[in-house]
Specification:
Layout lengths: L16 E6 L2 E6 L4 H7 L6 E2 L6 E2 L12 E4 L2 E4 L10 E4 L8
Parallel strand pairs: 1-7
Antiparallel strand pairs: 1-2, 3-4, 5-6, 5-7
Length: about 100
């Protein structure tokens, strides 16, 4: 079963913790994690809303195939599962389909 620590990188005791922002709110990550893993481990489970039903959507495949983890980083649409988190990074929900969790 997935839990917050399941998404963390191995050897977590040795990884440096960095700070980033998701929709203006501070979050922490370990160096080497993807944005998706860091958000999930920080308690964020939903990254956007479905276009038709506006229901929450989050991480699904975690390998870049499904496009469910689409977010904005530096005004570019990127997949959170394929984007390494960086110190001070500003991650935002996609404006026309985004929600906060």
């Amino acid at each position: 079963m997935l839990n917050d620590e399941t998404m963390r990188i191995d050897n977590s005791g040795r990884a440096t913790t960095i700070r980033f922002f998701f929709d203006g709110q501070p979050a922490s990550a370990r160096v080497g994690e993807s944005v998706a893993a860091a958000l999930f481990a920080s308690g964020t489970k939903s990254l956007r809303a479905s276009p038709r039903e506006h229901s929450p959507r989050g991480m699904f495949c975690l390998m870049g195939s499904c496009q469910e983890c689409l977010v904005m980083v530096d005004a570019r649409r990127v997949l959170a599962c394929r984007t390494p988190v960086a110190d001070g990074m500003r991650v935002e929900t996609v404006p026309e389909a985004g929600i906060n969790a």
